[in-house]
Design a protein that fits this description.
With 753 residues, this protein is an alpha/beta fold. Among the domains are: 189 residues, 3-Layer(aba) Sandwich (Rossmann fold); 114 residues, Immunoglobulins (Immunoglobulin-like, Sandwich), CATH 2.60.40.10. The chain contains 23 helices and 27 strands. α8 runs antiparallel to α18 and α18 packs across α23. The radius of gyration is 27 Å and the shape is globular. The N terminus is likely disordered. Bound molecules: 1-deoxynojirimycin.
Length: 753
């Protein structure tokens, strides 16, 4: 639009609405909630239908590609006022340039929101989310999200498509790497920590960005672990297992929700009014906006739930979607749908209101360029404090799976053979969805970590992650023979997890297992360090290696962190948040399954006619909550403040934990409870509390958990969230695989009557 026209229209706008003038005026910010609503009223009253539709349209710039369809015309759409938000455009200069078009070249000058997948760091990359979840350290997760937000905001971004809070129980699904693991209770706590980290206390803060709870809902339950696949589950499972992390994010005031690609019980999540209206808006009172996943409105035609794109757009908008990511359906068809009476203008107004509200809250009407500041970008990105937190987060994420004969920690006097495709890697180490993380030069490989700390080692790569023919292991075997200990750094490529990265084979790829077998023949003890984005089948490695450190994809400072852990400068304390199966056939396998009518592990169980496999044990390779330390922790029997809990009461469960080993260390103390009997079957155990503690060698602490009736509630057959009277078993331990050691009874009577 020509400047002159712009000015005349603006004048008209001012005449029509003095409060619209005020929202462009810097004199009084931040406005109160009611002032914001008044401003939105004014704006809505002068917006044309096209301008309203424009606010509901999100397009990707061509700087980055995170989905199948790109549209280079987005700049023209922007000039025409047909876009309300842009993603995959980063950097102060670029975002400023695009913002300038929105603010100066469109009739109303409504600023854009810039979104991006800031998943586990922006430029400073932290461990992948599943790795970081293994720290069970909520403060740390809040901190890393806060740093990620700060770096992203320094580069002009207002909105992250994170956290991914899908409960995931299928190791084949590549996106298991992006979440917090298999448990709903822990996942809900982590969801809150990450939302808090991204959004801070006030969205108007310069370094707060909008978070996005994704993918709503049940995306993690894709059939056979194949990405985007169908989800069919009971409403009880949906409520009990998959929805609570979303509710937790909402309780933390998450600003936006993203719909999932999958269908749920026959209705695609993007056109699912049960999820988007009944639950999200009516039951939970969500007042942010809902964005689709990438082209997921269009995909409703492939799902077979919409006849045409126009129809799909109508279903999506009428179901509660507010913004269309990349599909162009709202842009191309909404006007007609409104004119045809298929979408009510009031519904569009609601969507626009929710989007504008967040633009006001971010302070974009006051200063649309406030996030695009080159000077701040230079000062903040890759700040040394951020790299230190990245190192700490990586160490805290690592899980010691095995340590036969206390081969770890290594001693400085030992000669090490450092072997494997990932030992000197700076590319894969930062993992998938690594935003603007550099894949060369900046990330620290394990070899560089060893060098920085003057370790005594020789190095041989030996093979790639995948090879098309048998690699030559001669050099690796030679240095292994001459060493006291072999450290092998192996795993998956970063491309093997994340979106569209499902695998049916969970073994180490390529010739890596053969390499271990050859090195094993040298009889030099083997320490295996793993980078991977999912639980792997480690049946072979758990026999062949003397020690295994699960390092996930540890991020920018990963090499330093691995060195710290291997040499005992940090005593590992990570605990798995996903079960590691013995083989792919056990999937889905998770710690809080149901019992069946023929459990194998009860006294007197029949040898054959029980629920089991005939070729592999029921137990996992490594259970949920599991992880070793260089020290040992001894648990006392949990004591209860009372053996009976009543409706208006709580009980306290206390346990002593002693560091009975030779090193200071951290431990994640975990409380599991089993509801013995109920009107609907309950899991064999459920995590109900945890605390991460530090104990000096020889030290003992008493840990207390308070349990209230609220903690024992579940959804019954009528989907009511209720308490039922009965007996509960419990244990407190360092992992989920333990026997119950105490119990209590819950009654409906009141304690004081
Ligand atoms: C598709 C992914 O499913 C989603 O998680 C991501 O945020 C969008 N693409 C945008 O990149």
């Amino acid at each position: 639009m020509k400047k002159a026209t712009y000015i005349s229209v603006l004048v008209l706008a001012i005449l029509l609405s003095s409060s619209f003038e005020k929202h462009r005026n810097t004199s009084y910010y931040p406005p109160s909630d009611s002032e914001i609503e008044t401003k939105i009223d004014s704006l809505l009253s002068i917006m044309t239908l096209d301008e309203k539709i424009g606010q509901t349209v999100l397009y990707s710039s061509i700087e980055d590609q995170t989905g199948p369809i790109m549209d280079p015309n987005y700049v023209n759409y922007l000039k025409n006022g047909e876009i309300g938000a842009i993603f995959n455009a980063t950097g102060s200069a670029f975002t400023r340039e695009l913002q300038k078009v929105a603010v100066e070249e469109t009739r109303l000058g409504i600023p854009l929101i810039f979104g991006y997948d800031v998943i586990h760091g922006y430029k400073t990359i932290f461990p992948i989310p599943m790795g970081e979840a293994s720290s069970w350290d909520l403060e740390l997760m809040e901190k890393t999200a806060q740093i990620a937000a700060k770096e992203a905001a320094a580069e002009g971004l207002h909105w992250t498509f994170a956290p991914m809070i899908d409960v995931a129980r299928d190791a084949r699904w590549g996106r298991i790497a992006e979440g917090a693991g298999e448990d709903t209770f822990l996942g809900s706590k982590i969801a809150r920590a990450r939302v808090k980290g991204f959004q801070g206390d006030d969205l108007n803060d310069r370094y707060s960005i909008l978070a996005c709870a994704k993918h709503y809902a049940a995306y993690g339950a894709a059939q056979a672990g194949r990405d985007y696949h169908t989800v069919d589950m009971s409403l009880n499972t949906l409520r009990e297992t998959y929805l609570p992390p979303f509710k937790a994010a909402l309780d933390q005031d998450v600003a936006t929700f993203m719909t999932a690609f999958n269908e749920l019980n026959g209705v695609p999540a993007t056109g699912n009014s049960f999820l988007l209206k009944d639950i999200l808006r009516d039951e939970w009172n969500f007042d942010g906006f809902v964005v689709t996943d990438y082209t997921s409105i269009n995909e409703m035609v492939h799902h077979g739930s919409a006849e045409t794109l126009e129809h799909a757009g109508e279903i999506a908008m009428n179901s509660g979607v507010d913004m269309d990511m990349q599909g162009g359906v709202f842009k191309d068809y909404m006007k007609k749908s409104i004119e045809d009476g298929k979408i009510k203008i009031s519904r569009l107004d609601e969507a626009v209101r929710d989007i504008l509200r967040l633009k006001f809250k971010l302070g974009l009407f006051e200063d649309p360029y406030k996030y695009s500041n080159e000077q701040q970008e230079k000062e903040i990105i890759l700040h040394e404090d951020h790299l230190e937190v990245a190192r700490d987060a990586a160490r805290k994420s690592m899980v010691l799976l095995k340590n036969e004969g206390d081969i770890l920690p290594l001693k400085n006097s030992q000669k090490i053979a450092l072997i494997g495709p990932l030992a000197d890697d700076q590319f894969h180490i930062i993992g998938n969805w690594a935003a603007k993380g550099d894949r060369d030069g900046i990330a620290v490989s394990v070899k560089e970590g060893f060098e920085a700390q003057n370790k005594n080692f020789a190095f041989a790569k030996a093979c790639n992650i995948e090879d098309s023919e048998q690699p030559d292991f001669t050099e690796a075997i030679k240095i292994a023979k001459a060493a006291d200990v072999v450290v092998m750094v192996m795993g998956e490529s970063e491309r093997m997890s994340g979106e569209a990265a499902s695998r049916t084979n969970l073994l180490l790829p390529g010739y890596q297992q053969q390499l271990i077998a050859e090195i094993k023949k040298t009889e030099t003890p083997i320490v295996l360090v793993l980078y991977n984005g999912r639980p792997l089948n480690l049946s072979y490695e758990s026999e062949a290696a003397d020690a295994i450190v699960e390092a996930w994809f540890p991020g920018t400072s990963g090499g330093h962190a691995v060195t710290d852990v291997l040499y005992g400068d940090y005593n590992p304390a990570g605990k798995l948040t996903v079960t590691f199966p013995r083989n792919v056939g056990q999937i889905p396998i998770y710690y809080n399954m149901k019992n069946t009518g023929r459990p194998q592990d009860i006294p007197g169980a029949h040898e054959r006619y029980v629920s089991k496999y005939i070729d592999v044990d029921n137990s996992p390779m490594y259970p949920f909550g599991y992880g070793l330390s260089y020290t040992k922790f001894t648990y006392g029997r949990p004591e209860l403040s009372s053996k009976t809990m009543t409706v208006d009461d709580s009980i306290t469960i206390s346990t002593t934990v002693t560091n009975s080993g030779d090193y200071d260390g951290e431990e994640v103390v975990q409380l599991y409870i089993k509801d013995r009997f109920a009107s609907i079957t309950r899991p064999v155990k459920e995590l109900k509390g945890f605390e991460k503690i530090f104990l000096k060698k020889g030290e003992t602490k008493t840990i207390e958990f308070t349990i209230t009736p609220e903690d024992l509630k579940f959804h019954n057959n009528k989907l009511e969230f209720v308490n039922e009277a009965g007996d509960y078993d419990l244990f407190v331990a360092g992992d989920s695989d333990n026997e119950f050691t105490n119990s209590f009874n819950f009654e409906f009577k009141k304690s004081k009557t």
